Amino acid sequence: MGIITISRGSYSRGKEVAERLSKRLGYECISRDVLLETSAEFNIDEVKLIRAIHDAPSIFERFKHGKERYVLFIREAFLKHIRKDNVVYHGLAGQFFCKGAPGVLKVRILANTSDRVKEEMAREGITEKEARFILKKDDEERRKWGMSLYGIDTMDSSLYDVVLHIDNLKVDDAVDVLADMAKRPCFQTTAATLSFINDLYLTAKTRELLFDKFPEARVGCKNGVVTVSIDAPLALEQKIVDEVQQTIEAPAIDGIRAVRVKVHILDSGD
């Protein structure tokens, strides 16, 4: 039993590693289907979802809370999947969305730039110069996204339990290494792992429900108890408490044991 996230650049063969690894372990393999599920559930164009992850922050500056909204939806869909356990996730932001979860095996797959360029040229029918430009831009946009949203550089090896370079080490070799690591006790899913991930999911789900009315709400969850904190004038305190309670309780989110609403009163001068 385990959860594995694989971060990869384009044309790094990380997708191939993930698919073979999931087959070897008998785990579900997910990636783009998380985006598709999110796009269908929230009626958001998939291209916008992809841009929310890949593009630099400026792409959504013209939309109020635009980037935060889309990333929130993706986070919720991702956590909904992995809380089922026995999952290999590859691609978009997995190591961020389950940050702090014990027992999750976090992997980074790298490949030689020359090999990536050749793959880009073959798939897109472009020149070597064009391929190098596109790959460099794509890598930089991913890095900017991580820095702007979390203050973390996706290239930082400390984010991962293992970094594998596909070169002398081939895809099958990488699968062998990761399959062995996944069987180790430290990367086995425990009750603590599932509880932590469930709390992350309930936090994301609650934020999504409140986002339209209270985009600045601060949400946390511990052992199924959700805490919502909102800054507001004293005159609106009870109204906000009632509205938050009604919004969260109406859909009857499975797993929430209790909801606590804290209104931090703003000074009259604020």
Describe the structure.
- The structure is a single chain.
- With about 270 residues, the protein is of the alpha/beta class.
- It folds into 2 domains: about 5-185, P-loop containing nucleotide triphosphate hydrolases (Rossmann fold); about 215-265, GMP Synthetase, Chain A, domain 3 (2-Layer Sandwich), CATH 3.30.300.
- It is about 50% helix and about 15% strand.
- The protein has 10 helices and 8 strands.
- The strands form 2 sheets. Strands 2-3-1-4-5 form a 5-stranded parallel beta sheet. The chain has a 3-stranded mixed beta sheet with strand order 6-7-8.
- β6 (about 220) and β7 (about 225-230) form a beta hairpin.
- The radius of gyration is 20 Å and the shape is globular.
Annotation field: number of helices: 10
- Contiguous uncertain segments of 5+ residues: none
CATH topology annotation of the largest domain: Rossmann fold
The count of DSSP E runs of length 2 or more, i.e. the number of strands, is 8
Oligomeric category: single chain
Please state the second-level CATH architecture of the largest domain: 3-Layer(aba) Sandwich
Provide the structure class: alpha/beta
In sequence order, what are the helices and strands, one letter per element?
EHEHHHEHEHHEHHEEHE
Rg, please?
20 Å
Distance between the termini: 51 Å
Dominant shape: globular
Biggest sheet details? 5 strands, parallel
Q: What is the arithmetic mean of pLDDT? A: 87
Amount of beta strand: 15-25%
Strand order of the largest sheet: 2-3-1-4-5
